[in-house]
Specification:
The structure is a single chain. This protein is of the alpha/beta class and 220 residues long. It has a single domain, classed as Rossmann fold, CATH 3.40.50. It has nine helices and five strands. It has a five-stranded parallel beta sheet with strand order 2-3-1-4-5, with helices on both faces. Helix 2 packs across helix 3. The termini are far apart. The model has no long low-confidence stretch (mean pLDDT 96). The site of 3'-fluoro-3'-deoxythymidine monophosphate has 9 residues, from helix 4. Pathway: Pyrimidine metabolism; dTTP biosynthesis. Keywords: ATP-binding, Kinase, Nucleotide biosynthesis, Nucleotide-binding, Transferase.
């Protein structure tokens, strides 16, 4: 087993539909881990600050259009451009909390119903990226999500997309390992406590898990 000074950080992803509570829970988890003496970073995808991220931002706000495949590959490229820095943080002992990742990437693109953009096709450019040690899926009903506010102005924030996204998340997570489904319909504090216990478990298993892994192909 590694000494505390060289033990790697964990790669923790938080996924879910819009208003499931991802950003709130990432922040609460960051604080919890930080108070527990862990080095921790919170990042989010898309990272709208890079040149690729700015193209994505224009697309999401509706001020630019893109071919479905092209924007899909830009979202993926936006993860690839951050991959080395994630790997370095993890290796140096920093736990990285990620708000949306490859799972949103595959699911939102496939939800458009473009006949040449299947879930399987959408997953391919994710292969080789840093693999999360745990992906927390914040599961919430459409009714509960609606109580947390109406649809915003960005692309994808409409009922048709959200319904397809929900179904595709479910089928994707049936073909993935290291997914923890969290009931996100409870109070902020209750959800946070559920997340803390899953994450503590994940961090406790890191020595047995070994070095950071990479994402592989989807199971059949
Ligand atoms: P996401 O990042 O998944 O879109 P947010 O964390 O931004 O979600 O939360 C969306 C809205 O719902 C915010 O107004 C937030 O305060 C509220 N919210 C988040 N989690 C809960 C919860 N468990 N119960 C009630 N309201 C919540
Ligand atoms: N999204 C996010 C994608 O379509 N592909 C991706 O790879 C990622 C990471 O972008 F509608 C979508 C999901 C959501 C939007 O919203 C980003 P937030 O509010 O920044 O999470
Ligand atoms: Mg958010």
């Amino acid at each position: 087993s590694q000494s505390a000074s060289t033990r790697r950080g964990a790669l923790i992803v938080v996924e879910g539909l819009d208003r499931a509570g991802k950003s709130s829970q990432c922040e609460m988890l960051r604080e919890y881990l930080s108070k527990g003496g862990n080095a921790v970073k919170y990042i989010r995808f898309p990272d709208r600050t890079t040149p690729i991220g700015q193209l994505i931002d224009s697309y999401l706000r509706g001020s630019a259009n893109q071919d479905d495949h092209s924007i899909h590959l830009l979202f993926s490229a936006n993860r690839w451009e951050l991959a080395k820095s994630i790997e370095q943080d993890i290796a140096s002992g920093t736990t990285v909390i990620v708000d949306r990742y490859s799972y949103s990437g595959a699911v939102y693109s496939a939800a458009k119903g473009n006949p040449t953009l299947s879930l399987d096709w959408a997953w391919l450019p994710e292969i080789g990226l840093p693999r999360p040690d745990i992906c927390l899926f914040l599961s919430i009903s459409a009714e509960e999500a609606a109580k947390r506010g109406g649809y915003g102005a960005e692309r994808y924030e409409n009922e048709t997309m959200q319904t397809r996204v929900r179904e595709l998340f479910r089928s994707l997570f049936g073909r993935q390992e290291d997914i923890a489904v969290i009931d996100a319909g409870k109070s902020l504090e209750e959800v946070s406590i559920d997340i803390q216990s899953v994450v503590a478990d994940c961090i406790g298993r890191l020595d047995a898990t070994g070095p950071l892994r990479t994402l592989g192909p989807l199971a059949k």
